[in-house]
Write a structure and sequence with these properties.
By secondary structure, the chain is of the alpha/beta class. The chain folds into three domains: 12-230, Pyruvate-ferredoxin Oxidoreductase, domain 3 (3-Layer(aba) Sandwich); 243-430, 3-Layer(aba) Sandwich (Rossmann fold); 519-626, Rossmann fold (3-Layer(aba) Sandwich), CATH 3.40.50.920. It contains 21 helices and 24 strands. Helix 12 runs parallel beside helix 13. Residues 268-482 form the Pyruvate flavodoxin/ferredoxin oxidoreductase pyrimidine binding domain. Residues 526-609 form the Pyruvate:ferredoxin oxidoreductase core domain.
Length: 628
């Protein structure tokens, strides 16, 4: 072949600053694995990224149906990004159900890679297609790449001793190879992963590798893909350091282990499996080498009961759950408030009420965390804002728990738990010192000069009571849920004592030292403040950036501490004429802010099981900015 003809056939490489890709198929098609592997290679390449896994609640929904569609969206860029993207630039649809369930989110001009083998009459009829959308012109606004993924995969694996059904299972690896070629992703990590994952089944490992390489080669040689794309590493987006891709639940688990080491307390997790919190139990069970003990209880109540017992015994105690589990744990949380023992209650929020939407996100447990117990039972609340921030939030929850001897709520949600982003691995000396002292001997002198131990004699600064380990001679004391006498810890029904204890427990929570709220107001003359909490941080920040780029002036602040609020929150709110609070609930933070600060906050709410889109929020905020 001449040089001229080589130039003619060389494929075009276009440079992009960002891309949003969505893989979609049956829950058995391996879309989560495919997306995870593409994400890992993208992270190793150095792009900033954000992901949104989305899967059905059913363990195995009927194949080819809309309820059974599983998807994984990845947004990666050469600059700092904050969300998994509003709409995919590329949709990989493994069957008609995947196409129909996702096409409404795909903008005109986007690319569709469609597995044509699955577009049979029966498969299309299941989702209401009378005529193939690949042939009726309904996809004319998109760049459609019809690819017989199943056939090509089976053909690539014909030399392996596999049945057709077994070979078809590797079509997700063929798709991954194709997309890896299309966006110049590294391949070494995926190759190592497949060899390790199927180490005990080398023929399956070899087949998946062959499918992956066949997908790459198909992109390289076929006429159907004339263009590939490059997205440069986001070198300027990250401070110097060592990075890895991390999900919220994994970051939270690592944060708990780090808190255990920095407090020099053994970590105990008492838990009952529940979506989307179970991954924390799975991960912590792998770290016995760090002194972590995990206990999978028979139910939610047993899980927190064991954790509270471990706290009494001197452990850094944790229980993990979601909204329905918090309801079951509420009485024991109240017991922990009464006993004044450190306990971290991790609530990975999901759509409710009741069983609700187990695999969809929501942040509607705030009022339950604040008030969902009998009596006056105040509990501090901490909320991470990004997947990587779950690490720091876990350390902060541990700091408050051990310093103030109190149960602490850590409110994450399904979006953060399953989503992922790059995380800079901190140096050990960057982590807070969480060491605490146990009571060693008497702490009170009676009128007759006798030295005794009073289990409810408080630190004058923190109002925390001493933490006495069972078995320490002379420090025996009564525990239980009946009201205690101030100081002595004896059972007391005295009205004045009960009033004192209730007010003291509240004062202890109110007095927790938390950082002041930081406000992002570049010009200092904005009259509108957007206030958020939890996982709304990414969409809110992206929306605010859009408005500022368009010339609007707007301020933003984000709460990590929801109880107690930062001391300067009231002063911050008074500086602005308008306060907008977007939440994935019906206005729970807005209710608290209005009640405490008498601010006429504008609440914007969404409860559809999905995170906010930046464009959607930008439109809402623009209307508020320009409203008279």
């Amino acid at each position: 072949m001449s040089v001229e003809s080589k130039e003619i056939h060389r494929k075009d490489v276009r440079r992009l600053d960002r891309v949003v890709i969505r893989f979609a198929g049956d829950s058995g098609d391996g879309m989560q694995l495919t997306g995870d592997r593409f994400t890992s290679e993208t992270a190793s390449f150095g792009n900033d990224l954000s992901t949104l896994p989305n899967f059905p609640a059913e363990i195995r929904a009927p194949a080819g149906t809309l309820p059974g569609v599983s998807s994984f969206q990845l947004h990666f860029a050469d600059h700092d990004i904050l969300t998994p993207g509003d709409a995919p630039n590329v949709l990989v649809a493994m069957n008609p159900a995947a196409l129909k369930a996702n096409i409404a989110d795909v903008p005109r001009g986007a690319e569709l890679i469609v597995n044509t083998d699955e577009f049979t009459k029966r498969a299309m009829a299941k989702v209401g297609y009378d005529v193939s959308p690949l042939e009726d012109g309904s996809l004319g606004a998109y760049h459609v790449h019809p690819v017989p993924l199943t056939t090509l995969t089976v053909e690539a694996l014909k030399e392996f001793d596999l049945s057709r059904k077994e070979a078809e299972r590797s079509k997700n690896m063929f798709a991954l190879g194709l997309l890896s070629w299309m966006y110049h992703r590294p391949t070494e990590g995926t190759e190592k992963f497949l060899k390790a994952k199927f180490a005990k089944k080398p023929h399956i490992a070899a087949a998946n590798l062959a499918a992956f390489k066949a997908g790459w080669n198909f992109g390289e040689t076929t006429e159907g893909f004339a263009v590939s794309y490059e997205v440069a590493p986001a070198a300027k987006a990250f401070p110097q350091g060592t990075y890895r891709n991390i999900s919220g639940n994994l970051a939270l688990a690592y944060g708990l282990v780090a808190a255990s080491r920095r407090s020099e307390l053994p970590l105990f997790l008492g838990s009952y499996p529940i979506t989307p919190a179970s991954d924390i139990l799975h991960e912590l069970s792998r770290h016995k080498n760090f002194g972590v003990r995990t206990f999978q209880a028979e139910d939610e109540i047993a899980g927190i009961g064991a954790a509270l017992g471990a706290a009494f015994g001197g452990s850094l105690a944790v229980t993990t759950t979601s909204g329905p589990g918090v309801a079951l744990k509420s009485e024991t949380i109240g017991l922990a408030v009464s006993l004044e023992l450190p306990l971290i209650v991790v609530d990975i929020q999901r759509g409710g009420p009741s069983t609700g939407l187990p695999t969809k996100t929501e942040q509607a447990d705030l009022l339950q965390a604040m008030y969902g117990r009998n009596g006056e039972a105040p509990v501090p609340i901490v909320a991470p804002r990004t997947p990587a921030d779950c690490f720091d939030a876990a350390l902060e929850a541990a700091r408050i728990a051990v310093t103030y001897r109190t149960p602490v709520f850590l409110l994450s949600d399904g979006y953060l738990a399953n989503g992922s982003e790059p995380w800079r691995i901190p140096e050990v000396d960057e982590l807070p010192d969480l060491r605490t002292r146990f009571a060693q001997g008497p702490n009170h002198t009676l009128d007759d000069g006798t030295e005794v131990f009073w289990p409810y004699k408080r630190d004058p600064q923190t109002l925390a009571r001493p933490w006495a380990i069972p078995g320490t001679p002379g420090l025996e004391h009564r525990i239980g849920g009946i009201e205690k006498q101030d100081g002595t810890g004896n059972i007391s029904y005295d009205p004045a004592n009960h009033d004192l204890m209730v007010r003291t427990r509240q004062a202890k929570i109110d007095g927790i030292q938390v950082p002041d709220l930081q406000v992002d107001d570049p010009t200092g003359d904005a009259d509108t403040l957007v206030l958020g909490w939890g996982s709304t941080y990414g969409p809110i920040t992206a929306a605010v950036r859009r408005l500022r780029t368009a010339g609007d002036t707007i301020a933003q602040a984000h709460l990590r501490h929801l109880n107690p609020f930062p001391a300067n929150l009231g002063e911050v709110l008074k500086r602005y004429d308008k306060v907008v609070i977007p939440e994935m609930n019906l206005g729970q933070l807005a209710t608290l802010v209005r009640a405490k600060y008498l601010v006429d906050a504008h609440s914007y709410n969404q409860v559809n099981g999905m995170p906010f889109k930046a464009e959607q929020l930008a439109h809402v905020l623009e209307e508020v900015l320009h409203a008279r």
